[in-house]
Amino acid sequence: MSRTRVTELGYLGISVKDAAAWKRYAGDIVGMQVVDEGESDRFYLRMDSWHHRITVHVGGNDDLEYLGWRVAGPDELDAMAQQLREAGVEYRVGTEAEARERRVLGLLKLVDPGGNPTEIFYGPLIDSARPFHPGRPMFGRFVTGSEGLGHCILRQSDDAAAYRFYSLLGLRGSVEYKLALPNGMIAQPTFMHCNERQHSVAFGLGPMDKRINHLMIEYTELDDLGLAHDSIRRDKVDVALQLGKHSNDQALTFYCANPSGWLWELGWGARKAPAQQEHYTSDIFGHGVEAKGYGVDIDL
Ligand code: MBD
Ligand code: FE
């Protein structure tokens, strides 16, 4: 039987201490729709017609709380559960209440080899009668659809184990860079995809304080990246990597600190995932290190 594959990085849960700062950052600067449904412990960030793409849990560790990987439907969820069982990966089936909380029809809960809480779900709630309304004027939209919400760099202690786990979920990829580090070591980050987005998850950039180093989101219009960049500069938000173009996805991006002290990589113009793997020893241009200590002090 052929392997069942996840189709996209569908949602994230994050925990934050400063809700007001996060609403300003995600809404006014980045352009997401901030949705507050009157729950005291959380609010939502919308990027498209989905009920939400990010649940912001108020309190906690200022870190990633969970990632949600989508499968097509209930049969695929069952097949995925069987795949996990046969590989000896522990999981549990989410309850009705847990599915309702995530606004999905069904889900599995497990943990990746790096300890990152992971969910596999189907049937997200699409708020089709509520048009996406950006948090600030936008020329275009966020790139989502079949490409999911973006990509994440996650903490892993064993890259080979992480590769096996995400392969089991159906992602494909490989080491895509060999980067000389100042300490003489060579970083060999792995990038993996499950749809046309060049990568949905990556790991292997070195030790990390948090579960997540960055979330990358992509604009359809270059001018929206420009507006975000202007706002970040105006507000003197830390920029860890200046504007530049990656060799693998060829997106124009920059990395700015969010109010929880990890990074959002804002980008535009990524190319699609290749059919065959490549690797690089540098980026195309830019991505100079500016604010240090955000886990990307690397000469790309
Ligand atoms: C990326 O998206 C990235 O974050 C790094 C560090 C390298 C290549 C592509
Ligand atoms: Fe990235």
Largest sheet at a glance? 9 strands, mixed
Rounded to the nearest angstrom, the distance between the terminal CA atoms is 41 Å
How are the strands ordered across the major sheet? 10-13-14-9-15-18-17-16-19
User: SSE order in H/E notation?
Assistant: EHEEEEHEHEEEHEEEEEEHEEEE
Strand count = 19
- CA gyration radius, whole angstroms: 18 Å
| Secondary-structure-derived class | alpha+beta
Overall pLDDT confidence: 97
User: What small ligands are held by the chains?
Assistant: 3-methylcatechol, fe (iii) ion
Number of helices: 5
Percentage of residues in DSSP E strands: 25-35%
Structure description:
- The structure is a single chain.
- A hairpin with a 6-residue loop joins strand 2 (33-35) and strand 3.
- The strands form 3 sheets. Strands 10-13-14-9-15-18-17-16-19 form a 9-stranded mixed sheet, covered by helices on one side. It has an 8-stranded mixed sheet with strand order 2-3-4-1-5-8-7-6, with helices on both faces. It has a two-stranded antiparallel ribbon with strand order 11-12.
- It is built from 5 helices and 19 strands.
- The radius of gyration is 18 Å and the shape is globular.
- It has 300 residues and is α+β, with helices and mostly antiparallel strands.
